[in-house]
Amino acid sequence: MIVVDSNIVAYLYLQADYTAEAEALLQRDSDWIAPLLWRSEFRNILAGYMRRREITFDLACDLQLEAKSLLAGAEYEVDSRLVLELVRDSNCSTYDCEFIALALTLGVIHPAIKY
Fold first, then answer.
1. DSSP string covering the chain, please?
2. Which of 11, 40, 76, 84 has its CA 20 to 30 A from that of 94?
3. CA-CA-CA-CA torsion sign (82, 83, 84, 90)
């Protein structure tokens, strides 16, 4: 099981420098999970590609649906208190702490690991 960051999902669907690595990661372990936040972050990435005219609106919609399908049943709400504790104790953004909180909650990473 991998708590996958929105950028990894984007690399999988948008040809970029790390697309091959994202594909290899999915091949190695296809049990990807993410906090619900991933959807907004992914849409924001797609918005950037649309604004730079690198993808069309229709393609952005299609990619959003494909990514949503990939993570169907694997999206989680995270505990706000835990996110804020992680923010307090690190230099990570609240967005990043959502992914860390999910990994901690589901036992994907050990609490002693520094992030």
1. -EE--HHHHHHHHS--TTHHHHHHHHHH---EEEETHHHHHHHHHHHHHHHTTSS-HHHHHHHHHHHHHHTTT-EE---HHHHHHHHHTSS--HHHHHHHHHHHHTTSS-TT---
2. 11
3. positive
**How confident is the model over 58-107, as pLDDT tens digits?**
999 999 999 999 999 999 999 999 999 999 999 999 999 999 999 999 99
Calculate the CA 57 to chain-centre distance.
21
36-64 residue pLDDT tens: 999 999 999 999 999 999 999 999 999 99
What's the pTM value of the predicted model, to 2 decimals? 0.89
